[in-house]
Amino acid sequence: MPDAEPFLLRPLEASDRRAVRRLWSARFGGTASTQTNWIEAALAPSHTATGVVAAAPADGTIVGISFLEVGRRAYTRQYLGLTELDLQAPLAERNGLFHLSCVRVDWEGRGIGTAFYERRLSVLAARNVPRVFGIAWHRPGSVDSRALFESFGFTCLATVERYYSRVGTRPHCPYCADECACTASLYGRTVPTPHAL
Q1: For 62, how many CA atoms within 13 A lie in the half-sphere containing its CB?
Q2: Which is higher by pLDDT, 164 or 54?
Q3: Which pLDDT score is estimated for 5?
Q4: How far apart are CA 97 and CA 67, in angstroms?
Q5: What domains can be seen in the chain, in order of their start residue?
């Protein structure tokens, strides 16, 4: 497979469930119920969650996944773990949440992560969501999403050791033997207007 092979971004489809779960488990861990809840929310037309996949153009194999949610202030506080961590963040009444992006190891460095960030910011701008937040997992010995957050103008609001075990949202870490003890950083920014993207 040549390094310059392009990829296709498209909305998550029902037939993607199995491949998405497999990539999610391999790259991020977590529980099957969390994966199912996010996938089903993104597939429900009435829900505010959005799922996007990156596919290899030759055969449609899923090589990346990304999820976005829009939540009210209270949901955003809960999602980010602000109460448990005793942290403050400049929340709006409606906030975008960059939930998860995973790229298959052999497809890293080809612009998929950048394309996911651009797509999610465009979706939020189109929905007139004023603020967006995300969590950058510090993957041990590996490149992580901090560089992408910063290249897209996000500000680091806090860096928290043992983030996932403190907020209770991620057992089965692929880097830790079981429950995640990794550090994570919380990022936020305003959403640019559609013409500024």
Answers
A1: 23
A2: 54
A3: 61
A4: 9
A5: 8-196 (3.40.630.30)
**Residue 133: HSE in the Cβ half-sphere, 13 Å Cα cutoff:** 26
**How many CB atoms are closer than 10 A to CB 143?**
11
Residue 143: pLDDT band with limits 50, 70, 90:
confident
Q: What is the CA radius of gyration of the chain?
A: 16
Structure tokens at 110: 């080809």
How many residues comprise the chain? 197
Give the model's pLDDT for residue 181.
83
Banded pLDDT at 2 (limits 50, 70, 90): very low
* Alpha-carbon span 134 to 113, nearest angstrom: 14
pTM, 2 dp: 0.91
Report how far apart, in Å, the C-alpha atoms of 122 and of each of 55, 138, 163 are. Answer: 20, 26, 28
Residues in a beta bridge with 94: 72
What is the rounded distance in angstroms from the CA atom of residue 45 to the CA atom of residue 40?
Answer: 10
Residue 196 has pLDDT above 70, yes or no: no
Q: What is the C-alpha separation between 43 and 26, in angstroms, rounded?
A: 22
Closest-CA residue to 157 (of 71, 83, 90, 74)? 90
